[in-house]
Design brief:
- With 412 residues, the protein is α/β, with parallel strands linked by helices.
- 21% of the residues lie in helices and 29% in strands.
- Helix 1 crosses helix 5 and helix 6 (180-187) packs across helix 7 (201-210).
- The longest helix is centred in the middle third of the chain and has 21 residues, at 232-252.
- The N and C termini lie far apart (75 Å).
- The protein binds uridine-diphosphate-N-acetylglucosamine and magnesium ion (MG).
- Magnesium ion (MG) binds at residues 103, 105, 228, 230.
Length: 412
């Protein structure tokens, strides 16, 4: 065995988050933190991903039950990050390969940074390589201790630092690559002699250096991707940084976002070229928007929304689990839920699709080229033929909908 695998540590209790949910399941821009770390590993090509779970383990496994490339490892008692890695020993003890170790609470990680880490490890032929970051405010992170020549000597956790060491601004974001055999050798000797009484993975590095192995630290992590989320405040900060990345990617792809600070777009959303997103628009979940659309201000798009091209959604328009074909216009105050809307339909102000009858969610089908007057209610399940004309203020149920076609004018 000699390939590269990844271990992601995700067993911790997270007292600072004050939560019953596993920390790594808390969402950043619509996906659990752990998803981002998994994707970063997949991006550099690893043979297997071992995820160490403990606190709320079943919740985490259930959320990722469809991910076939994960091997779940239990850490029943959380005795520290070194102990968590030791729990993978059964799987990895014979391996000659490389082991990437990352924390599940670091969603801002980028594949490019991991690639830099791997390249450095290979060019330096080191036993362990870690990527570090320099932060203006390093509080809370393990500090990188270097000697007068700049060689790394070890990492001291924030709670164990002296006043002098607390001033060090180079920190450990927890991105490591190890030669597997040397790692597991060093882990045997890690002792919990620190303020928290935990077995620290960071101590394994100092032990490796002491026994003559080459350990290299490369300052490759941008400050904004170093963040480990330990509190709700950090969760919201990570969300803000991720939101900037999402919007910046969309703008690179030709989407106009008029007021980025007052717009929120889920990471799973796809938006076509020349679409304009107006301020106070909130797009949550798996949403697909075509080209040349105009969305907002104050639009709320929820999971399962698919918009064709040239669609206009205006102020206070909510769309959920619905597809709107090319040229649909819904400019003011409407709710389209569980609906299929044909081409060039005009949705008047205040249309409601009444999709829930108290027991079931029902669908509304609207044909092409329909005109739906303001203040109408479509009681699902209901289907309108192509070209149907619904007068303003009409309540349409299936009983009276069948008459309405291109010739069939609506009556109240
Ligand atoms: C850790 C690092 C610190 C670094 C910081 C970056 C250690 C000792 N410290 O500190 O140097 O600056 O991350 O964010 O590694 N976990 C387990 N089992 C355990 C304990 C933790 O799986 O027994 C997991 C947690 O779920 C978490 C990760 O390991 O995903 C890191 O643990 P956390 O308690 O957040 O460590 P930090 O104090 O942030
Ligand atoms: Mg942490």
């Amino acid at each position: 065995m000699g390939g590269r695998v990844a271990i992601i540590l995700a067993a911790g209790v997270s007292s600072r988050m004050n939560t019953k949910l596993a920390k790594v399941l808390h969402e950043v821009c619509g996906r659990p933190m752990l998803s981002y770390v998994l994707d970063a590993c997949r991006g550099v090509g690893v043979e297997k991903i071992y995820v160490v779970v403990g606190y709320s383990a079943e919740q985490v496994k259930d959320r990722f039950r469809d991910a076939g490339d994960i091997v779940w490892v239990r850490q029943d008692e959380q005795k520290g990050t070194a102990h968590a890695v030791t729990c993978c020993r059964e799987h990895l003890k014979g391996s000659d390969g490389q082991t990437l170790i990352l924390c599940g609470d670091g969603p801002l990680i980028r594949t490019e940074t991991l690639r830099t880490l791997i390249d450095k490890h290979e060019s330096e032929h080191s036993a362990a390589t870690l990527a570090t970051a320099v932060l203006a405010e390093p509080a809370g992170y393990g500090r990188i201790i270097r000697d007068a020549y700049g060689n790394i000597q070890g990492i001291i956790e924030d709670s164990d630092c002296t006043a002098e060491q607390l001033k060090i601004t180079e920190v450990n974001p927890s991105y490591y690559l190890f030669n597997n055999k040397i790692l597991f050798g060093a882990l045997d000797n890690v002792q919990p002699d620190n303020v928290k009484g935990e077995y620290y993975l960071t101590d394994a590095l100092a032990l490796m250096i002491a026994s003559g192995h080459k350990v290299v630290a490369v300052t490759a992590v941008r400050p904004e991707e170093a963040m480990g989320v330990n509190s709700r405040q950090q969760l919201s900060e990570a969300g803000k940084i991720m939101q900037e990345r999402i919007q910046s990617r969309l703008m690179d792809n030709g989407v106009t976002i008029v007021d980025p600070a007052n717009t929120w777009v889920d990471v799973r959303t796809k938006i076509g070229q020349d679409t304009v997103i107006e301020p106070f628009t909130y797009i949550h979940g798996e949403v697909k928007i075509g080209r040349n659309c105009r969305v907002g201000p104050f639009a709320f798009l929820r999971s399962g929304t698919v918009l064709g091209d040239d669609v206009v959604l205006g102020v206070f328009t909510e769309v959920k689990n619905s597809s709107l074909a090319d040229g649909v216009r819904a400019r003011h105050h409407s709710y389209l839920g569980d609906a299929t809307v044909g081409k060039n339909v005009n949705v008047g102000a205040g249309l409601i699709t009444a999709n829930y009858d108290g027991k079931n969610i029902n669908r509304t089908e609207i044909g092409n080229d329909c005109y739906i007057g303001s203040g109408s209610i479509l009681i699902a399940p209901v289907a309108l033929k192509d070209g149907a004309h619904i007068d303003a203020g009409t309540v349409v149920s299936q009983d009276n909908a069948s008459k309405r076609g291109r010739q069939g004018k609506s009556r109240r």
